[in-house]
Amino acid sequence: MYAYDEIDRTLVNERVSEFRDQVKRRLSGELTEDEFKILRLQNGVYLQLHAYMFRVAIPYGTLATNQLRALAHVARKYDRGYGHFTTRQNIQFNWIKLAELPDALADLAKVGIHAMQTSGNNMRNVTSDQWAGVAPGEIEDPRIWSELIRQHTTLHPEFSFLPRKFKIAITASDHDRAAIKIHDIGLRLIKNEKSETGFEVLVGGGLGRTPFIAKTIKHFVHGRDILSYIEAILRVYNQYGRRDNIYKARIKILVHELGIEKFSREVEDEWQHIRNSSLQIDDEVIEDIRSRFTYPAYEKLPHMPDELRQAAADPDFEAWRKNSVAPHKVQGYSIVTISLKPTGGPPGDATAEQMDALADLADRYSFGEIRVGHEQNLALPHVAKRDLPALWKALDKLGLATPNVNLITDIIACPGLDYCSLANARSIPIAQELTRRFANHELANLIGRLHINISGCINACGHHHVGHIGILGVEKNGEEVYQITIGGRADENAALGTLIGPGVKFDEVADVVEDIVEAYLALRERPEELFMDTVKRLGVEPFKERVYATR
Amino acid sequence: MPLVNGGKIVDDSFVKLAVDTPLPESGDILVPAERFLGEAEGLLKRAGKVGVIWPNNRDIAELVPYLGKVAAVALVFPTFRDGRAYSQARLLRERYNYRGELRATGQVLRDQFVFMLRAGFDAFEVKKQADAEAFMQTAKRYSVFYQPTGDGRITALHRRMQLRHSEGVGT
Ligand code: HEM
Ligand code: SF4
């Protein structure tokens, strides 16, 4: 965990008081809606279909229990008793009143939480691997660097009014859980031959109307130079990024139009001017940040405690353990993923009671720490294996032990027409229907790893392009129609899905997904061949035939 | 439009000329970039200060040969959402060591003052009278800064190092 000091807290409080003043000026009419809009967006406040939506930052997905309780408090006091965890490691509240927002922010500020730059055309909340610091084989904890970058990008005087929003994601593992290739800047922590820490830098990824997988712009940037290198990229983008058309204003379009070689020459040129400036980070600074991350005092524990051996007799426990428990870098500990995808529920939702109860469980079983992942699930990062059975029982009581992590019902979905003013179609009801169709755990398990991603419009908040099965809602002649893609992925081998044919109606989506799954089960060579591998081997044709032969 | 300079509302000594406005005999003038580059020699010879209004989509490097001779550079925020002039300002101050007046013009609102000050602006053509009056109060809103810029303010990272070293004394 990173501990905010007086300096960080002061900034957060100054931000709250500024926003209080801005809201006051809006309510008195001194600020027009046009002027206010950008100010509220910079504080995570959207005007949605029914009300204001409030998006709170959870930098690199790490939460302390008092912070999770504060989120529960906001859900209860200012909203309707729940919150929605998103693909950006944020949480959103859907029913907040403008006049109460400054108070909600002030309550969150007390525990070092804010909503700065969760929206607007600036550098957004830095995201990272939800298993950071505990994943076996990781180069080092990427949150040290995420925090450095979080600080550097917060209220940046040059880059708070960019052509468009700007997202940075960091991973330090071979297996990329941070989806760095679909970010404006993706950073992969690596060591060079001299064993110095640095980054492979990728640029120009993103989804939305024109999806792109990021390209490598530089194979190694030394850690000490990472801020100046990011600054160079941003400066080139700020000056040359298009502002004439919001659909073309993202850095991915600039990179695409210039070509990665020309773009990287521009950046290199800029970087040579500034790399030896005060942006250079010395070891002392990094050590200072590192020193404010605290790590649990792990015990020496057996690899296979008795509690776990005994619990293995219970098939329900075993189903959950196999699905939700991952190896930890310290012997005797595990990482536990908590599915926020119960059968029939909206993906990513958690009630205030669940959040409070989870905070208690994290205090008891995970050294007071919780993580938020971009798959809209939570995790407890340091659970002693002997505690797994007790934890499972407690989670089950809270409705948080659905054993479907990475299975077909672990669906990522944006809010769609139920909340979002930009939506063309519903997303949540489709996700709910699919979780019912595939509620049978044996069947889901037989299918194996399969990610479904649903977005209610082309903006792609549900990451549909990178779903193994992607579902995109569009509008056609006043009707909701869904386009289906297959073969997308967001990991280290990120790829965009391929459209399998004409869109289908709302009522048909679940049937189509069933058809695709049946086709896969019939086509796979062996049970270990995952859906993605079958798609890779055979392409979309056989799936297309299966889906459209009878339609 | 009130002008804030040095933190106070002041009278603007500069007269803005369009591309084709006849040149006044004397007095301080602000001239569009295009005209300035075309007639620089003549403009700089007359009595009175000369400033240039530089659009936000023109490379600031073109202005560099004249930086020692112009009294003011006015950068433009066509809307407050368009932040290109922040980069130009930092380049002028930090890369090209421009020390004259650096003026923010266009949609200049109080909510941008801190960013503008940090980027190197010291003069502000403020759109609303109330914002101009609130200048000092707004400019002092923040006491913590995370990024180093040419304004020389100490960053949070370095403040921490200082604190740490001073605490370290005697322990
Ligand atoms: C309900 C209010 C929301 C609104 C108004 C909204 C708005 C938008 C818009 C306009 C874009 C398009 C950006 C572009 O052109 O690239 C976008 C993209 C995105 N949104 Fe949302 N969104 C909302 C909710 C969410 C939620 C709930 C999530 C997460 C579940 C989310 C995550 C994302 C992500 C990850 C992208 C990125 C696409 C990319 O990488 O280009 N948004 N959103
Ligand atoms: S994808 Fe579209 S419908 Fe879904 S949340 Fe984003 S903007 Fe709204």
Structure write-up:
Chain A: GO terms for molecular function: 4 iron, 4 sulfur cluster binding; heme binding; metal ion binding; oxidoreductase activity. Chain A: InterPro entries: NIR_SIR_4Fe-4S, NiRdtase/SiRdtase_haem-b_fer, Nit/Sulf_reduc_fer-like_dom_sf, NO2/SO3_Rdtase_4Fe4S_dom, NO2/SO3_Rdtase_4Fe4S_sf. Chain A: This is Sulfite reductase. The complex is a heterodimer of chains A (551) and B (171). Chain A is an alpha+beta fold and 551 residues long. Helices cover 36% and strands 18% of the residues of chain A. Chain A contains 18 helices and 21 strands. In chain A, a hairpin with a 4-residue loop joins strand 4 and strand 5. Chain B is built from six helices and eight strands. Chain B has two domains: 138 residues, TIM Barrel (Alpha-Beta Barrel); 28 residues, no CATH class. Chain B is α/β, with parallel strands linked by helices. In chain B, strands 2-1-8-7-6-5-4-3 form an eight-stranded mixed beta sheet. At the A-B interface, helix 1, helix 2, helix 6 and helix 9 of A face helix 2, helix 3 and helix 6 of B.
